[in-house]
Write a structure and sequence with these properties.
- The chain is of the alpha+beta class.
- About 65% of the residues lie in helices and about 10% in strands.
- The chain has 29 helices and 8 strands.
- The strands form 2 sheets. The chain has a 6-stranded antiparallel sheet, covered by helices on one side.
- The N and C termini lie far apart (about 100 Å).
C-alpha cells in the first residue's frame, strides 16, 4: 500500500514538470487519490504505528496536487492568451554531435523559426529556449536564446564560461553555426519546409532534406512537407521515393509511410512509389508492419498489388513475408498476371513451413478456380520439405469441390515428385478415399503409385484403394501392371489377397488375380494367393484348370500340394 502511495506522489511531482501532460492526467490522478485513501483508512494496521506516515503522505500528495494544478492552469491560460505566431508542435529534444576535433550540443524546448538566410533565430514558442554549445580544440562557446511568455527573445552568450555581450560577437557566432545546428537537428523544420516549398516546390524541399544529418530531423521535414496542401500525384511519388532513399532509420521510414498512407494511396502512381519505398527499408519487421498496415487500411487496386507483392519479395525474413501474404490472401486477385506474381513471391520464401502456411491459408479463404488450383500445385512442387508438400496437397484436396480430370492428372504428377515415399502414400490414400474419384480420375493416381520407391507404401495405397479398383474393367490392366511392378513378393501377395478379402470379386477380375500371382517370386506368397482364389472362385472347370496350372508353376512342392488340397 505504501509503495502505491509513494508511486502516485512521485508521478504527480513528475507530471508537474510538464503542465500539459499533467492536465491531461488530472482525471486519473483524482480517481487514484479517491480510491487509495479509503483503502488506507480501512486497514487497521495503518492506524497502528504506520498512520503517521500515511497522514504525511496524504498531506504531501494533496498539497502537491493543489499547487501543481493551480500552476498548470495558470500556465495553460497564459499560453493560450499569448503569442500565437508559432502554432506548431512543441519540441523537447537534446542533441550531441561529436567530430574529430569538435563537438556540438543542442537543447531545444519549443518550436523555432529562423530567418530566410538561416543566420538568425526570429521566434521561439513562448516559454521555450534554444541552447547551442560548441567546443573546438578545447575552446567552448555557448549561446542560450530564451522566449518569455510574450514570445520576446533574450540572449546569453558565453565564451569559455565568460559571459559576453550578444552583440556583435554572439550574433556573428550564431550566424556561423546556425546552419550546422539546423542540419544536425531538424530545428525550424516547419518554417523552412514552407520557405523551400514556396521557392521550388517538392524538389527544393527534398534537396534540402538531403542536407539534414539525422533520421529524426529528416523525418520532421518530410512530415511537414506531407502536411502541405495540394501536393500533386508526381509530388507525392517523389516524396515516397525520397523517404525510402534518404532516411537511414528503418523505423522513421516506416512511421512516415504509415502515418501519411492516406496521402500516398490517393492515387495509384504514388501508391506504387509507396511500395517501392518499402522495398528500401532494411528492417524485415518494419517493412512487414508497413505492408500489413496498408493491407488493413486500404483495398488495393489491381495495378497496385503487383507493387505490394514486389515489396514482399524484398523482405529478408521468411516469417515476415508470410505474415504479409496471409493478410494479402483476404484481397487475393483473380487476375492471372497478379496470380503469377503472387506465386513467384511464395516460391521465393526460403522457409518451407512459411510457404506451406501461406498456401494453406489461401486455400482456406478462397474457392480456388482451376487456374489458381493449378498454380497451387506448381508452387507445392517447389517446396523443399516433403511433409509440407503433403500437408498442402491434402488441404487442397479436402477444400476443393469438383476437380477436372486434367487437374487430377496435375495432382498425381505433383504427388509423384514428392521425395518421401510415406508422404506420397498418405496423399494418394487421402485423394482416393476422400475425393471418391471416377475411374478416369483414378488412372493418374494409380500410375503415381508406381513412382513410390517403398514397396510397403505401394502396397498400402493399393490395398486402401482395392474396393474402388477391383471390379472396374477400365482399371484392370493398370491395376495389375502396378501390382506386378511391386518389388516385394509379400506386398504383391498382400495386395492380391486384399482384392479378394470379402469374396465379392468379379470373375474376370479374379482370373486376372490368378495370372498376376505367377509374377510373385515367393512360393509361400504365391501359395497364399492361390489358396484364397480356391476359396472364393466359382466352382467350375475353367477356374479349377487356371488355378491348377498356376499352382504347377510354384517352385515349392509343399506349396503346390497346399493349393491343390484347397482346390479339390
Amino acid at each position: 500500500m505504501n509503495n502505491r502511495i509513494e508511486r502516485l506522489a512521485t508521478n504527480i511531482l513528475r507530471l508537474a514538470t510538464s503542465p500539459f501532460t499533467f492536465v491531461g492526467h488530472l482525471p486519473f490522478i483524482v480517481s487514484s487519490t479517491q480510491n487509495e485513501f479509503p483503502r488506507i483508512a480501512s486497514r487497521q494496521n495503518y492506524w497502528r504505528g504506520k498512520l503517521k506516515k500515511d497522514k504525511f503522505m496524504k498531506t504531501l500528495m494533496m498539497k502537491t496536487f493543489t499547487t501543481v494544478a493551480v500552476f498548470c492552469f495558470a500556465v495553460v491560460a497564459a499560453q493560450a492568451g499569448g503569442e500565437d505566431s508559432l502554432k506548431t508542435k512543441t519540441y523537447r529534444n537534446d542533441f550531441k554531435i561529436v567530430g574529430n576535433a569538435s563537438s556540438l550540443e543542442i537543447k531545444v524546448r519549443g518550436s523555432v523559426k529562423v530567418n530566410e538566410a538561416d543566420t538568425e533565430v526570429t521566434a521561439i514558442t513562448p516559454g521555450g529556449y534554444l541552447t547551442i554549445r560548441k567546443t573546438t580544440f578545447g575552446n567552448k562557446k555557448e549561446l542560450t536564446i530564451s522566449s518569455n511568455d510574450a514570445g520576446q527573445l533574450s540572449y546569453e552568450f558565453y565564451d569559455n564560461r565568460t559571459q559576453i555581450n550578444f552583440e556583435p560577437e554572439g550574433r556573428k557566432w550564431l550566424a556561423d553555426v546556425l546552419l550546422d545546428v539546423i542540419h544536425s537537428t531538424g530545428v525550424a523544420a516547419e518554417d523552412r519546409v514552407k520557405r523551400f516549398y514556396r521557392k521550388g516546390g517538392v524538389d527544393a524541399v527534398i534537396d534540402e532534406i538531403e542536407e539534414i544529418n539525422s533520421s529524426s530531423g529528416k523525418g520532421e521535414y518530410f512530415s511537414f512537407l506531407l502536411e502541405t496542401n495540394g501536393l500533386s500525384e508526381a509530388g507525392l511519388s517523389k516524396i515516397a521515393l525520397a523517404i525510402g532513399r534518404d532516411i537511414p532509420s528503418s523505423s522513421t521510414r516506416g512511421e512516415l509511410l504509415r502515418e501519411y498512407d492516406y496521402k500516398f494511396f490517393s492515387n495509384s502512381k504514388s501508391a506504387a512509389a509507396y511500395f517501392e519505398a518499402v522495398n528500401n527499408i532494411p528492417s524485415s519487421s518494419e517493412s512487414a508492419y508497413t505492408l500489413r498496415h496498408a493491407l488493413q487500411k486500404h483495398k488495393l487496386e489491381t495495378s497496385t498489388k503487383i507493387a505490394l507483392l514486389d515489396a514482399v519479395d524484398h523482405i529478408p525474413s521468411s516469417s515476415e513475408r508470410g505474415s504479409v501474404l496471409r493478410l494479402y490472401n483476404r484481397q487475393f486477385d483473380k487476375d492471372q498476371r497478379i496470380q503469377d506474381k503472387y506465386f513467384d513471391v511464395v516460391d521465393d520464401i526460403p522457409s518451407s513451413s512459411e510457404r506451406g502456411s501461406v498456401l494453406r491459408d489461401l486455400i482456406r479463404d478462397q474457392s480456388l478456380e482451376p487456374y489458381t488450383f493449378s498454380k497451387v500445385l506448381s508452387s507445392v512442387r517447389h517446396i523443399p520439405s516433403s511433409s509440407e508438400q503433403g500437408e498442402v496437397l491434402k488441404y487442397a484436396i479436402d477444400n476443393s469441390s469438383q476437380l477436372s480430370n486434367e487437374l487430377f492428372g496435375e495432382l498425381a504428377s505433383t504427388i509423384s515428385r514428392i521425395a518421401s515415399s510415406s508422404t506420397q502414400g498418405e496423399v494418394l490414400k487421402f485423394a482416393i478415399i476422400e475425393k471418391e474419384p471416377t475411374p478416369s480420375q483414378l488412372v493418374p493416381l494409380i500410375k503415381a503409385v508406381q513412382s513410390i520407391a517403398s514397396s510397403s507404401t505401394q502396397g498400402e495405397v493399393l490395398r486402401a484403394a482395392s474396393a474402388k479398383m477391383r471390379n472396374d474393367p477400365q482399371l484392370s490392366d493398370l491395376v495389375f501392371e502396378t501390382v506386378t511392378r511391386i518389388p516385394s513378393s509379400s506386398e504383391q501377395g498382400n495386395v492380391l489377397l486384399t482384392f479378394m478379402k470379402d469374396g465379392n470379386v468379379h470373375p474376370d477380375f479374379l482370373m486376372r488375380v490368378i495370372v498376376a500371382s505367377e509374377h510373385i517370386a515367393s512360393s509361400s506368397s504365391r501359395g497364399d494367393v492361390l489358396v484364397k482364389v480356391a476359396e472364393v472362385m466359382p466352382r467350375n472347370d475353367t477356374f479349377r484348370k487356371a488355378v491348377s496350372e498356376a499352382a504347377s508353376k510354384i517352385p515349392s512342392s509343399s506349396e503346390y500340394r497346399r493349393v491343390m488340397e484347397k482346390l479339390y
